[in-house]
Design goal:
The chain has 70 residues and is mostly helical. The protein has a single domain, classed as lambda repressor-like DNA-binding domains (434 Repressor (Amino-terminal Domain), Orthogonal Bundle), CATH 1.10.260.40. 53% of the residues lie in helices and 9% in strands. It has five helices and two strands; from the N terminus they run βαααααβ. A two-stranded antiparallel ribbon has the order 1-2. The radius of gyration is 11 Å and the shape is globular. The two termini are 13 Å apart.
Length: 70
């Protein structure tokens, strides 16, 4: 079963100077493990964290996350 929410975080990190998961985690105030889990679609972030991620990359929320629901 495919996760309902997918993301482009890995692509965005590499498009922004190959930013590490740790650097992104530090920028948004979470652990590296949390960034890893979000990136691998094993965990859905809070709305606040989702907006922080979009802000770090200066993109809209829908450029970071996509929802494939019914």
């Amino acid at each position: 079963m495919k996760p309902a929410i997918s993301n482009n975080i890995r692509k965005l990190r590499f498009a922004n100077g190959e930013m590490s998961q740790q650097a992104l985690a530090d920028a948004i105030g979470v652990t590296r493990q949390t960034v890893y889990a979000i990136e691998k679609a094993k965990y859905s972030p809070s709305l606040e964290v989702a907006f922080k991620i979009a802000k770090v990359f200066s993109v809209t929320l829908d450029e970071v996350f996509q929802y494939q629901g019914d």
